């Protein structure tokens, strides 16, 4: 491509609405332009990067026998009602009606559609297993689109679906896809971690993992062990079980019943610890939640935070949210800030860390009052004890007792074992070898293709340059003659351009009559990993080579071509 013909209008100033580096640089470099909040057009430079990522995805998917198809973005709403997800998905699901008042949704994902297709096309175990995928635009009505392509309302996604006759088959399909994702992200040049995750609105009956790109701008927290391979999303992360003191020791220290203490205008943990001169880990915090149609109390230590997804999973609830102020007052007899487990008439979910305490301070279910000396198991039930809190940095690892550490991450992909969640609700089955009807065993697997582009950019900006990995760069080599009016420079530039193009290296030739400074600044935005700068040495066939590391050295033209071909070949 000749740069004079390329639609690449660069900007020198950072757009005010762009927070993430990737967002700033891709707007400045002319990779994309915003049409509305969270909705972008991909200009030629951005489309080239996306196309290269898509090609890697297709190569790796096709390599193990997955088959590509294309499903409609507009889906009948009755399919979502059939699966039971119409009400669960929430306001992110974009709904619309056609002229006949038939209701549709714009697909955020395609489990319902693929299940409806496969139940028509597959009837026998002889047709299994099968893995189908597509690369297509998805739609989610994000409340707050931000960070450019990292959280948008319209985005490009690869979604795949496996169908097996049994759980052993699903396990094989899942492992194949897991390993395929590792290869895809490695080829895209990403630094990433695979972590245990929560199923969320997707649901499922088995393992699920997220693949996270490490980046400070990431909205997800990755919890990993300092000593072993354990890693999980904060939503899913566990900790080692605390040790519980022997019963005799607890009994000695808790001989007295709870004592009521007046605590006027003391509502928060900070106010309570200051008033009573205690540490937060001596407080038992009671939070009242509405889980579907039921009020429940969740108990965690005063220095911990409730993990609502763990609560939701334990209760098998569709929705979990903090109870309204009036609900708390009616249930406890006191305003928010004074709830406690003693005498509370509702199901109590007790974090195992609380269950291990020998005693603690709680709300008294009275205004301006707390209880001291409250003993778990004696003063309130431990029937529903489990892991209901967020992990914290420094906690013991649940696998090896190493220490947990936190990182920020960008979700790139997610793999799920769905099991029969959709096949049973949508009556998608097959006949086994004995002629019995059985539900299909499903898995689903997604990669945010446009997110991958943003994540790679986020990791590839350094030293005032964006340097794309060779495998997905919009152009592999940027040829920059300093003076286009110099015949020797342009003759050598044209020679290199044709040689590199014939070798499939997708060169970009800056044939514009611009100052050298303008060309170099634009080259920093175009992000080609290799640059061949042609200046005074052109007459003797010499160029200045600049690699991904930014180091420059003089080379003969034929040597520069040889090195460029080797670099491109090693990235495949």
UniProtKB/TrEMBL annotation:
Originating species: Paenibacillus lactis
Domain statement: Consists of three domains: the N-terminal catalytic domain, the editing domain and the C-terminal anticodon-binding domain.
Primary site of residence: cytoplasm
Domain Aminoacyl-transfer RNA synthetases class-II family profile: residue ranges: 38-469
Oligomer and partners: Homodimer.
Record-linked InterPro entries: aa-tRNA-synt_IIb, aa-tRNA-synth_II, aa-tRNA-synth_II/BPL/LPL, Anticodon-bd, Anticodon-bd_dom_sf, Pro-tRNA-ligase_IIa, Pro-tRNA-synth_IIa_bac-type, Pro-tRNA-Synthase_IIa_type1
Protein name, UniProt field: Proline--tRNA ligase
NCBIfam families reported in the protein's UniProt record: PRK09194.1, proS_fam_II
GO molecular function: proline-tRNA ligase activity
Compartments in which it is found: Cytoplasm
Source taxonomy: Bacteria, Bacillati, Bacillota, Bacilli, Bacillales
Biological role stated in the UniProt entry: Catalyzes the attachment of proline to tRNA(Pro) in a two-step reaction: proline is first activated by ATP to form Pro-AMP and then transferred to the acceptor end of tRNA(Pro). As ProRS can inadvertently accommodate and process non-cognate amino acids such as alanine and cysteine, to avoid such errors it has two additional distinct editing activities against alanine. One activity is designated as 'pretransfer' editing and involves the tRNA(Pro)-independent hydrolysis of activated Ala-AMP.
EC numbers: 6.1.1.15
PROSITE patterns: AA_TRNA_LIGASE_II
Keyword field: Aminoacyl-tRNA synthetase, ATP-binding, Cytoplasm, Ligase, Nucleotide-binding, Protein biosynthesis
Pfam families membership: HGTP_anticodon, tRNA-synt_2b, tRNA_edit
Similarity comment: Belongs to the class-II aminoacyl-tRNA synthetase family. ProS type 1 subfamily.
Catalytic reactions on record: tRNA(Pro) + L-proline + ATP = L-prolyl-tRNA(Pro) + AMP + diphosphate
SUPFAM superfamilies the record matches: Class II aaRS ABD-related (SSF52954), Class II aaRS and biotin synthetases (SSF55681), YbaK/ProRS associated domain (SSF55826)
């Amino acid at each position: 491509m000749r740069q004079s013909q390329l639609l690449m209008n660069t900007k020198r100033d950072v757009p005010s609405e762009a927070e993430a580096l990737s967002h700033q640089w891709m707007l400045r470099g002319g990779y994309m332009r915003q049409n509305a909040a969270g909705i972008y057009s991909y200009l030629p430079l951005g489309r080239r990067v996306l196309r290269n990522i898509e090609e890697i995805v297709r190569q790796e998917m096709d390599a193990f026998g997955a088959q590509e198809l294309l499903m409609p973005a507009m889906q009948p709403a009755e399919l979502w009602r059939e699966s039971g997800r119409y009400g669960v998905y929430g306001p992110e699901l974009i709904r619309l009606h056609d002229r006949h008042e038939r209701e549709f949704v714009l697909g955020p994902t395609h489990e319902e559609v693929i299940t409806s297709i496969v139940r028509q096309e597959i009837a026998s175990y002889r047709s299994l297993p099968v893995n189908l995928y597509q690369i297509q635009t998805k739609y989610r009505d994000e409340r707050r689109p931000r960070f450019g392509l990292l959280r948008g309302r319209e985005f490009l996604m690869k979604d795949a679906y496996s169908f097996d006759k049994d759980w052993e088959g699903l396990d094989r399909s899942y492992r194949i896809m897991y390993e395929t994702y590792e290869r895809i992200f490695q080829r895209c040049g990403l630094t990433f971690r695979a972590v245990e995750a929560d199923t969320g609105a997707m649901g499922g009956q088995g393992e699920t993992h997220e693949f996270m790109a490490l980046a400070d701008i990431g909205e997800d927290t990755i919890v990993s062990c300092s000593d072993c391979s354990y890693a999980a999303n904060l939503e899913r992360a566990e900790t080692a079980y605390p040790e519980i003191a022997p019963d005799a020791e607890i009994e000695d220290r808790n001989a007295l019943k709870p004592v009521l203490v007046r605590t006027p205008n003391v509502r928060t943990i900070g106010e309570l610890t200051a008033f009573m001169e205690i540490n937060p880990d001596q407080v038992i915090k009671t939070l009242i939640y509405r889980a579907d149609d039921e009020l429940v109390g969740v108990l965690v230590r005063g220095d911990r935070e409730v993990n609502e997804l763990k609560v939701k999973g334990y209760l098998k609830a569709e929705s979990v949210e903090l109870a309204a102020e009036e609900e708390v007052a009616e249930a406890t007899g006191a305003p928010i800030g004074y709830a406690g487990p003693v005498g509370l008439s509702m199901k109590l979910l007790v974090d195992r860390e609380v269950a291990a305490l020998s005693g603690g301070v709680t709300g008294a279910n009275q205004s301006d009052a707390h209880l001291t000396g409250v003993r778990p198991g004696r003063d309130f039930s431990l029937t529903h004890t489990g892991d209901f809190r967020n992990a914290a940095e420094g906690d013991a690892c649940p696998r090896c007792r190493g220490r947990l550490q936190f990182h920020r991450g960008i979700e790139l992909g997610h793999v799920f074992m769905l099991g029969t969640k959709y096949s049973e609700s949508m009556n998608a089955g097959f006949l086994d070898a004995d002629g019995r009807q059985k539900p299909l065993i499903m898995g689903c697997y997604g990669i945010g293709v446009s997110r991958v582009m943003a994540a790679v950019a986020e990791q590839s900006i350094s030293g005032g340059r964006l340097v794309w990995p060779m495998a997905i760069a919009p152009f592999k080599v940027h040829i920059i003659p300093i003076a286009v009016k110099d015949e020797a420079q342009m003759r050598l530039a044209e020679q290199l351009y044709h040689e590199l193009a014939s070798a499939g290296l997708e060169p970009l030739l800056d044939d514009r009559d611009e100052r050298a400074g303008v060309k170099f600044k634009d080259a920093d935005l175009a992000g080609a990993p290799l640059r061949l700068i042609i200046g005074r040495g052109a007459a003797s066939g010499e160029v200045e080579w600049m690699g991904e590391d930014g180091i420059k050295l003089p080379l003969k033209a034929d040597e520069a071509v040889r090195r460029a071909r080797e670099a491109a070949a090693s990235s495949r």
